[in-house]
Amino acid sequence: MAMPLCGHQLNHFFCELPVLLKMACEDTGGTEANLFVARVIILVCPLLLILGSYAHIARAVLNIKSMAGRRKAFGTCASHLIVVSLFYGSAISTYLQPVHRYSDSEGKFVALFYTVVTPMLNPLIYTLRNKDVKGALWKVLGRGKDSR
């Protein structure tokens, strides 16, 4: 993208595309339209593929005879879906809104969320699936088995 930027200072953590488009000194309508199509392809298509694969997984899990097996499978899927939802939800809210509606302060929070918070939560969410780790966390928090 080669477009002149007005003499503004970049008030963000990194060069976020909506921020750069707001700083442009020329009309960005055509560029925004092209970027919107690219963003849909990059964000929405993978999300739809993930959700489609989870529909197949859910159908297979429902065919499991034992309730304990179903619960375990759904628990594993749920933790992954939480991470996917956090990442894609924040990325989509940032990149699929019109530039004129983009808020700098909200944009900073969401950018921080999907670049720092979600990757930090990812190992925690998956680790808490382990009973030993869960027990150790309860112990650190000062709650024994009987107070759960």
Structure description:
- Helices cover 70% and strands 0% of the residues.
- With 148 residues, it is mainly α.
- It has one domain.
- α2 packs antiparallel against α3.
- The model has no long low-confidence stretch (mean pLDDT 79).
Indicate how many domains the architecture comprises: 1
Instruction: Please state roughly what percent of the residues sit in beta strands, choosing from under 5%, 5-15%, 15-25%, 25-35%, 35-45% or over 45%.
Output: under 5%
- Uncertain regions spanning at least 5 consecutive residues: none
Helical proportion? over 70%
What average pLDDT do the residues reach? 79
Order of helices and strands: HHHHH
Q: Please state the structural category.
A: mainly alpha
Helix count equals: 5
Radius of gyration over all CA atoms, rounded: 21 Å
Shape call: elongated
Major sheet: none
CA distance, first residue to last residue: 55 Å
Number of strands: 0
What keywords describe this structure?
single chain, 148 residues, mainly alpha, 5 helices, 70% helix, 0% strand, receptor, transducer, Olfactory receptor, cell membrane, GPCR_Rhodpsn_7TM
